[in-house]
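(Structure overview)
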Amino acid sequence: MVSFLFISMDWTPKIERAPVVNIVKAVMIDESQIRAEAERKRKIEEEKKRVAEKKREDAEEKKRKAEAEKKQKADEAKERKQQEEKKRKAAEEKKRKQAEEKKRKKAEEKKAKEKKAKELAEKKRKKAEEEKKRKAAEEKKRKAAEEKKRKAKEKRLREESEEALRQQMEEEQQVLDVARNRREQRLMSSYVDAIRQDVQRSWRKPPGTKAGMACTVRVSQIPGGEVVDAKIVSCSTNDENFKRSVISAVYKASPLPKPADASIFQRALEFKFNPQE
């Protein structure tokens, strides 16, 4: 409205009509007045041009503002539409994400249930296997205990039987040993007595021999009976002649008599030499 009022106002300067003067007086108008009048007209023309330019500028400004307002409204409408489209897409995206999240959660829940079911089944299977192993171990342990008990019983019976047999064999062996010892003693006694008799037969009584003289003699011989050594172990007298006579008799009796059983032969043996016996 301000622009309208501004434009509608009559800005045209009022031109005062020059008073009619006489031609004679006009001739005498000062040249300065002519220049002033021309200047005034020029200013009026310039003012007209300025006003016209101002009107044109105001019209253009109004048009520009109208176009700008129209463009702003269009931009605002476009912005609103874009915002609405953005909101719609955001809502659709949110809805899609919610659907996907719901689907994902549902899948995860299903997977978790399947996993839990699988773990439960695996746990039951392991428990069943452990129970089976435990029963098998107990059965194995029971059988092992029974086998151990059976073997222990068999071992005990075997040991008792072996012990009884061993005792019987020992008793029999003792009987045999006693009998063998007695036989060996008899044979040995006969063997030693035969040697003593041979030595006594070979002995020559030295002068000064008294009753009661006796010596224990150790003889070393080889399997054929040949005497290789003879020593006095002990003697009832210190008579050296008697002792030498005994040793001499042993060598004279060589080879000594053989035992009735070759198993009782001894390389070294002792016997008592007593001439009075």
Remarks:
- Strands lie at 215-221, 227-235, 268-273.
- Residues 31-202 form the longest helix (172 residues).
